[in-house]
Amino acid sequence: MLENTQLQYDVIIIGAGPGGIFAAYELLEGNKGLKVAVLEAGHPLSCRRCPIDGDKVKSCIGCKVCSIMSGFGGAGAFSDGKYNITNDFGGTLHEYIGRRKALELMRYVDDINMRYGGAGTKLYTTAGSRFKTLCMNNDLHLLDASVRHLGTDINYVVLENLYAHLKERVDFYFDAPVDTVCLTDGGYQVRGKAGTFTCARCVVSVGRSGSKWMEQVCRDLQIPTRSNRVDIGVRVELPAEVFAHLTDELYESKIVYRTETYEDKVRTFCMNPRGVVVNENTNGIITVNGHSYEDPAMHTANTNFALLVSKHFSEPFKDSNGYGESIARLSNMLGGGVIVQRFGDLIRGRRSTKARMEESFVVPTLSATPGDLSLVLPKRLLDGIIEMIYALDKVAPGTANDDTLLYGVEVKFYNMEVAVDHRLMSPHEGLYIIGDGSGITHSLSHASASGVHVARDILQTLEG
Ligand SMILES: Cc1cc2nc3c(=O)[nH]c(=O)nc-3n(C[C@H](O)[C@H](O)[C@H](O)COP(=O)(O)OP(=O)(O)OC[C@H]3O[C@@H](n4cnc5c(N)ncnc54)[C@H](O)[C@@H]3O)c2cc1C
Predict the structure, then answer these.
(1) How far is residue 32's CA from residue 242's CA, in Å, rounded to a whole number?
(2) Which long-range contacts (CB under 8 A, 24 or more apart) does 156-160 make?
(3) pTM (2 decimals)?
(4) Rounded alpha-carbon distances, angstroms, from residue 86 to 101, 207, 334, 433
(5) What are the residues whose beta carbons fall under 8 Å from the beta carbon of 396, sequence distance 6 or more?
(6) What is the per-residue pLDDT across 254-285, written as a single tens digit (0 to 9) for each?
(7) Which of 196, 205, 216, 434 to mutate to test the pocket of ligand 1 (most atoms within 8 A of CB)?
(8) Closest to 36 (Cα-Cα) out of 205, 214, 157, 179
(9) Neighbour count for residue 314 (Cβ, 10 Å)
(10) What is the pLDDT of residues 215-234, one digit of tens each?
(11) Given 90, 122, 382, 401, which residue has the most CB atoms within 10 angstroms?
(12) CA distance readout (Å), 399 to 218, 310, 393
């Protein structure tokens, strides 16, 4: 441990994801004299490398610090960089700070991204879209959003530029996981690998990767929490032409359907035009995800998106994430990883086999085990997904084709929701909890906006 002599800061930010970055940015915009430190468990952006190369290393080897999830830029550093400017999804920030304010802050973040390298990237919008009517006519609901698609390459450039700007005035500590946050007289003591620090105000922005640590901090400081939802479903892959009329104009469409049988809501998530389906390793459990490349040379013939159903448990069972993990484990047990099934096989009640897959017109972009998803997903969830596929077939004919591929399972885990007020402040004066680590946000735009919000609150209290 590199012991120091209790370095003192005005503000300490824990976590250098979008929440932490935008909190630091806004603090310095408002008061250049502030002494601000950012403590980050992962590496600087330039040192973040995932060892999976598809050749020598094909799957996750469980690095001590995951370079995909941690380091400057946080979990989104190598993402598609889709900034959704909306209150309809991506978090519930608006419930805390108000709808108008939340949108204002998301637009403000978008402006900064444009100034730091994002200029020229496309902003898609569903407003006034003819698809909204088409969806409504077919019992589907297209959510309102403007989507800034930075793309993986430009997203990285923006982060590089923001770091170059911030590092002149902010003390960054990398490879510096924080162990404890303790109350002191008039502030906080923050201890971790980089040493012991004190500050008057502390902003905790530790994202999904910091969820277990966040739970411990809440227990230690007696901050109330409540369980959040888990989203479970499948990833759908079909010929790009089937959704081209939507994806060419909107890039990503978030469509919600209420099932007739159970009145459950099923929604599309993370649409990747001409993209690839990929494995995702969450704590050793293999689930499925997808992404797409900006570079047309990397485009595939297929589009993929998830169909998810939210489950929220309260009493007596509260462990929504544990429920999602158990279902994912079941697919791993039966398929040795992710299972793929043709839609035609699923509705005929038979498993997909290697031979049936080879006859399929849709060529899978992920090598998964042909199997039977009805042995994995609870009936209620599967019925909802099947209903939604038929509903989508009305706005994108071909969706319910026999050869449409379903990969399972896709699971989206959420942090438990931490008790904070409209300032995103915990019951302890000066201790703010923001971004995905608070359970309130789950997107780049909402997490970034929450960072700006608390920075402004801190600036205001300093002035007052
Ligand atoms: C592959 C992938 C693709 C994605 N694509 C998109 C997308 O296109 N659009 C979108 O809106 N969202 C996307 N997301 C989600 C998005 O990345 C997150 O919602 C967002 O990054 C949350 O920001 P955050 O600052 O709250 O947390 P994070 O980005 O998770 O950052 C938290 C940081 O805190 C650090 N940390 C954790 N614990 C500690 C500790 N104890 N001490 C010090 N540091 C700690 C972590 O190392 C991490 O760097 C994607 C996520 C992934 C994984």
Answers:
(1) 52
(2) 156/45, 156/73, 156/77, 156/78, 157/117, 157/118, 158/81, 158/113, 158/116, 158/117, 158/118, 159/21, 159/45, 159/72, 159/73, 159/77, 160/45, 160/117
(3) 0.89
(4) 11, 20, 39, 21
(5) 242, 243, 245, 246
(6) 999 999 999 999 999 999 999 999 888 776 78
(7) 205
(8) 205
(9) 9
(10) 999 999 999 998 888 999 99
(11) 90
(12) 45, 22, 5
Ligand 1, atom 5: closest residue by C-alpha: 79
**Site of tokens 């709808």:** 99
> Strand, helix or coil at 298?
helix
Structure tokens at 264: 């459950």
At 386, which amino acid appears?
Answer: I
Report d(CA 396, CA 406) in Å as an integer. Answer: 16
Ligand 1 center to residue 68 CA distance, Å?
A: 9
- Tokens at residue 35, please? 């002494």
Ligand 1: residues within 6 Å at CB?
14-20, 39-42, 70-71, 74-76, 79-82, 84, 90, 177-178, 205-210, 213, 435-437, 442-445, 447
Q: Please provide residue 411's backbone torsions phi and psi, each rounded to the nearest 5 degrees.
A: -130, 135
Q: For every residue of 414-452, which 3-state class applies, written as one string?
A: CCCEECCCCCCECCCCCEEECHHHHCCECCHHHHHHHHH
Ligand 1 atom closest to 280 (CA): 1
Q: Give the CA angle between residues 57, 61, 62 to the nearest 5°.
A: 155
Distances (CA, A) of 331 to 22, 278, 279, 301: 39, 15, 13, 27
Percent residues over pLDDT 70 in the chain: 97
108 Cβ contact list (under 8 Å, min separation 6):
449, 452
- What is the residue type of 427? P
- HSE-CB for 68 with a 13 A CA cutoff: 13
Buried b (16+ CB within 10 A) or exposed e, 422-450: ebbbbeeebbbbbbbbbbbbbbbbbbbbb
